[in-house]
Amino acid sequence: MRNFSILPLELCGVSFSAGGKKLIHDIDLMIEDGPATILLGPNGAGKSLLLRLCHGLLQPTTGQVIWRDLGRHMPKLHAMVFQRPVMLRRSAAANIDYALKLNGICRQSRKKLVAEALELAGLSDQAQTPARVLSGGQQQRLAIARAWACRPQVLFLDEPTASLDPQATKAVETLIGQVQESGTKIIMTTHDLGQARRLAGEVLFLHSGRLIEHRPAEPFFSGPATSEARAFLAGDLLW
Amino acid sequence: MSTIGESFAAALALILGMDPALREIVGLSLQVSLTAVFLAALIGLPLGALLALSSFPGRGAVIVLSNTLMGLPPVVVGLLVYLMLSRAGPFGVLSLLYTPTAMIIAQVVLVTPIIVAYSRQVVEDLWTEYGEQLRSLGAGRLSATPTLLWEGRFPLTTGILAGFGRASAEVGAVMIVGGNIEHVTRVMTTAIALEVSRGDLPLALGLGIVLLILSLGVNAATALLAMATRQERRLMRRRVA
Ligand SMILES: Nc1ncnc2c1ncn2[C@@H]1O[C@H](COP(=O)(O)OP(=O)(O)O)[C@@H](O)[C@H]1O
Ligand SMILES: [Mg+2]
Q: Is the CB–ligand 1 distance for residue A66 below 6 Å?
């Protein structure tokens, strides 16, 4: 179906400063299509900022974010699920419909796409429920379904299971797996190292706004190259 | 001269008996104020949203003007509109003075700033909450405006109710530009002023009671809206916990 890809995503010397502080330091990076890319790092390392820079919500102070073939396609080819997704005060189905409409998709196609997205997220029965009344886990799945409805090639997720119980976390992880199977590249942050191990194809390890490791998941978890990453992984063992 | 008790009984009789004179005055009042509030919402909601979301030359001046109008006593607004509509004024040729249309115009001037202020505040707050999400979904500030107005429908309705409160309660502006002409421009507040001075307390009291009930209704609706909003917040807090 796709005859072009927006990947790889390339960051060239990307820095970001705010309030007189340099928060992201000269990041050079290439993200290829393939299994999930997981951003790890302590709180305040700049993970959320980096996702926002990649997604285009923030402009780098210096450097460039380069997609291979982004053009001006409608619908948008990369989407993001925020740590605290904002649900519109309308039904679950209408939330998805809204996103499709913004991307210029006609009413007839929307109906089908809304149903498919709800189905994928296991929310078909909640289609007409006001989105803000759904449980935390359901809202998170709805947010993923809404972002996925336009069939993005890349989906950014910022701590998609923070503040969810284990059962809801599992459901979200399953959904992320399904999104991945549909051919969407997953780029996400998490503070849950178990989750990182389950999902990661490769790891980006961020520390104080610097990218200090970028490696396949397997070697990263079995033998991190930097002392910072070692400390970070060891810290997890203490919990 | 009847006692207050008798006047009160007579006033109730007027209301319960749907007295034609009373009905006509109440009808005209509602017609003028509801039309004015409708038009003010039509102007004020998008203008408030625009002020909240965009910066353009003269934005500051519009805000100052709007806030100033909001603080003016209705008689002064009435005077300004009078000057505009009087024979010598710029819109004199339209011969609108002493018509319900003139009263509607004056009340639009009174109410629009209130709705602008509410709308600006509500949309500003909502943009803080929704901005990034909406941009991510593909909306710009302009295309987000109707969405934000709809998302803010509860607090915005509160603003519209406040506007209706100001419109239906004021007497100065409609008195000056309407002239309190029987069967033409006599509304509740101007009628009360006149009837009291003429000594017809029952009609004045009757109209006063109607105004009271109206105000009660507006405030009850406002309270219900606040309750609905609190309820939603509670639901969301429970979700997060
Ligand atoms: N708009 C901003 N202005 C100033 N500082 C910010 C801004 N956004 C984030 N920061 C700071 O940048 C650092 C990285 O933030 P963030 O990317 O959210 O970290 P995390 O890795 O926990 O997601 C933090 O110290 C945060 O306080
Ligand atoms: Mg973060």
A: no
Tens digit of each residue's pLDDT (9 = 90 or more) over A85-112: 999 999 999 999 999 999 889 999 999 9
A52 lines ligand 1 (CB under 6 A): no
Give B24-47 pLDDT, tens digit per residue: 999 999 999 999 999 999 999 999
Which ranges in chain A belong to alpha helices (H)? 47-55, 92-102, 107-120, 136-148, 166-181, 193-199, 217-222, 227-238
**Would you tell me which residues 68-97 of chain A have a C-beta closer than 8 angstroms to some C-beta of chain B?**
75-76, 79-80, 82, 85-86, 88-89
Look at chain B and report how many structural domains it folds into.
Answer: 1
Q: Containing domain of residue B35, as a range?
A: 2-240
Please give the sequence-ordered ranges of beta strands (E in DSSP) within B123-188, or none if there are none.
none
- Is A75 a residue whose pLDDT tops 70? no
CATH number at B74 reads 1.10.3720.10
**Paired tokens of A12:** 């060239």
Find tokens 């190259």 and name the residue: A225
Q: Which residues of B touch A98 (CB under 8 A)?
A: 137, 147
Q: Rounded to an integer, what distance in angstroms lies between the CA atom of residue B153 and that of residue B166?
A: 20
How far, in Å, from the CA of A45 to the mean position of ligand 1?
Answer: 8
Please compute, for residue A4, the number of CA atoms within 13 A of its CA located in the half-sphere on the CB side: 8
CA separation, residue A75 to residues A11, A147, A221 (Å): 23, 11, 37
The pLDDT of A130-145, averaged and rounded, is 95
Count of Cβ atoms closer than 10 Å to residue A34 Cβ: 14
Question: Which of B122, B126, B129, B137 is the best residue to mutate to test the A interface, defined by the most A CB atoms within 10 Å of its own CB?
Answer: B137
pTM value is 0.86
Q: Among A22, A23, A187, A188, say which to mutate for ligand 1: greatest number of ligand atoms within 8 Å of CB.
A: A23
Give the ipTM of the model, two decimals please: 0.90
C-alpha span between A203 and A222 (Å, rounded): 12
Residue B240 has pLDDT above 60, yes or no: no
Are the beta carbons of B20 and B211 closer than 8 angstroms? no
Q: Are B206 and B17 in contact (CB under 8 A)?
A: no
